[in-house]
Write a structure and sequence with these properties.
- About 30% of the residues lie in helices and about 15% in strands.
- By secondary structure, the protein is α/β, with parallel strands linked by helices.
- It has a single domain, classed as Rossmann fold, CATH 3.40.50.
- Helix 7 links the parallel strand 9 and strand 10.
- Strands 1-10-9-6-2-3-5 form a seven-stranded parallel sheet.
- The structure holds 2-phosphoglycolic acid.
């Protein structure tokens, strides 16, 4: 079962997630981190930046990228990762890969990204958000539980959710390239974050519903090491919330 931590705010969640990443980097300064984009991980990246660690040896892989945006578009995940992760955390330029960024044809980009993750030794810790559709990465409902990095079609609901980052909803691409659910399952530790009432159904379905391609986030139930950090609003529909709180309050010394 995932460790589920219910906190008062996104900032508190960011502090906990950043602490988990710091502990990893103390053991493994050149760890390979999987970076999510979107609003959810921002408090984690801010907290990590505030720790002032030397992250110069860290390598990273982004979860996903839009297909079809002009090169250098401010909302491409390449640009977002450079702005919100690489620069504030002081990572080496070029140390974080984004799917499809190798300048080669889109066809085959997924397989090449998988090879590059493998060649880097695999992802040690993957930061994840979850969409209202239950997606993780851009694995929309119906994604194979064993899927690897590939091009996908975004749902209209996800395009509308992400329209806030663009001048008009029509500008949101219809396609993306995303790590698959199987790719995510290969990471050694998953840290899934979710905030706000709008995520409450997706969080409950992912953690407590059946494992199903209809709820891509439910694949985390198949992973041996998952930390879920949610605020009270996102935890609202969790049936076992009291147990999760109890377990967190009673964690053993070596788990702290
Ligand atoms: P958000 O997106 O962090 O912007 O809410 C999460 C997601 O869609 O995976």
């Amino acid at each position: 079962m995932a460790e589920v931590v219910i906190v008062g705010s996104a900032d508190e969640a960011g502090d906990i997630a950043a602490g988990i990443i710091r502990s990893l980097l103390e053991q493994l300064p050149d760890a390979v981190l999987g970076f999510a984009t979107g609003s959810t991980p921002l408090s984690t990246y801010r907290a990590l930046a505030a720790q002032g660690l030397d992250l110069g040896a860290v390598r990273g892989f982004a979860l996903d990228e839009y297909v079809g945006l002009p090169a250098g578009h401010s909302q491409s995940y390449r640009a977002v990762i450079d702005r919100e992760v690489v620069a504030p955390l002081g990572l080496q330029p070029g140390s974080v890969r984004v799917p499809g960024d190798d300048g080669l044809p889109l066809q085959g980009a997924g397989e090449r990204y998988e090879r590059d993750i493998y060649a880097a030794g695999g992802i040690d810790l993957q930061v994840l958000g979850i969409g209202r559709t239950g997606h993780i990465g851009f694995n929309e409902p119906g994604s194979s539980l064993a899927s690897l990095t590939r091009v996908k079609t975004l749902t209209e609901s996800t395009r509308l959710d992400n329209a806030r980052f663009f001048d008009s909803p029509d500008e949101v691409p219809t396609h993306c390239i995303t790590q698959g659910l199987g790719t995510i399952l290969r990471a050694r530790h998953l840290v899934l974050l979710a905030f706000g009432e709008s995520k409450a159904d997706a969080v409950a379905a992912a953690l407590e519903g059946p494992v199903s391609a209809s709820t891509p986030g439910s694949v985390v139930q198949l992973h041996p090491r998952v930390t879920v950090i949610v605020d009270e609003a996102a935890a609202r529909h969790l049936e076992h919330a009291d147990y999760y709180r109890y377990a967190w309050d009673h964690r053993l010394d070596w788990e702290r």
